[in-house]
Amino acid sequence: MSRRILIPVDESKESEAAFEHALEEYAGDTLVLAHVINPVSAFGHAEEEAFELEEYKGEEEHRHEEAEGLLSVYRERAESDDVAVETTVEVGEPARRI
């Protein structure tokens, strides 16, 4: 029976190493590649600065697109080795979401 193995991914060397290890060790299983977007804090602005909702939304959308691009690279690599893969983008504090 195939297992689902969670692999959190980002742009770090450690993430790449974990992914490569998973490709070798769990080739017969499904790799679930997860990237967590830590939300932009509205509270990082100085009191005299106005919080721009549209700017916030734009930044969140940009981060989501970057995450999808990153997952696409990992997905293509896994599929080139005939390893089953699923991807997910989560939003929140990474330690809690993973």
What does this protein structure show overall?
The protein is α/β, with parallel strands linked by helices and 98 residues long. It is built from three helices and three strands. The chain has helices spanning 13-25, 53-80, 94-97; strands spanning 4-8, 30-37, 84-91. It has a three-stranded parallel beta sheet with strand order 1-2-3, covered by helices on one side.
Describe, in short, the structure shown.
With 98 residues, the protein is of the alpha/beta class.
Q: Note the run of SSEs as H and E.
A: EHEHEH
The count of strands amounts to 3
As a percent range, the share of helical residues equals 40-55%
The number of helical segments is 3
Major sheet: size, sense and barrel closure? Answer: 3 strands, parallel
- Unreliable spans are none
Average pLDDT score: 88
In terms of DSSP E residues, the strand content is: 15-25%
Shape: elongated
Strand order of the largest sheet: 1-2-3
- Distance separating the two termini: 24 Å
Task: Describe the secondary-structure layout.
Layout: E1 4-8, H1 13-25, E2 30-37, H2 53-80, E3 84-91, H3 94-97
Parallel strand pairs: 1-2, 2-3
List the keywords:
single chain, 98 residues, alpha/beta, 3-stranded parallel sheet, 3 strands, 46% helix, elongated
